[in-house]
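=== RUN LOG ===
request id: a7f3
mode: sequence -> structure
chains: 1
length: 241
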Amino acid sequence: MSDTLVIIPTYNEASNVSRLIPIMMSLVPDVDLLFVDDNSPDGTQEIINKQREAFPGRIHLLARKEKSGLGSAYVEGFRYALEKDYRYICEMDADFSHDPNDIPRLVEAAKKDDASLVIGSRYHNGISIVNWPLSRLILSYSANMYARFITGLPVKDTTAGFKCFRREVLEAIPLHRIKSNGYAFQIEMHFRAWMAGFNLSEVSIIFREREEGESKMSRNIIFEAVWMVWALKLRSLINRL
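=== RESULT ===
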């Protein structure tokens, strides 16, 4: 068993997971995978289960009955990781927007004493995003500036979904209070870790727009992030995080 678990939420990612798993299994040092699937109708779970036979003990699946959102998928994954005594717990998308080969870089950075949460950042050294339309780039960059201004978070990519936690960070966060999804979920996890006194660091990555499948972005995700930053700030001021 590896000391590192990579949590990957999925919904209709059959074409991606069939390519992703062999790459992840070849990483050095070894990592284990946990897929949290929201009852994908495209056969995603079947592909994962078939690959589990090829890599016994290294690929795990939480099969949920319905589409319940990114935030709750990660929370279930975090609980699983803590129960199984993983030391380093990573978040990652299934669609190759995050380069699997960056995982060892994030984990190595998390092993250093001054880094409890390492963020794979699109904005750490300028802007490192490939194949996004200008409108989405402006939206993302503006959202990060907005979140930093309201919350005071000391990172440039507050909405990043590619990261590595040391287990003590997740142990210190009341996971039962996490209700947000999408951008808001990522902001909330960063904010709670920071307010709990942990050091956040950023490692520059190249983010690429997905090649296959459909984006999960929606207006609801954007609106949730807009009000969530104010809710987090208010809760921190009245000590109710």
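=== NOTES ===
The chain has a mean pLDDT of 92.
Residues 131 and 209 are 6 Å apart (CA to CA).
=== END ===
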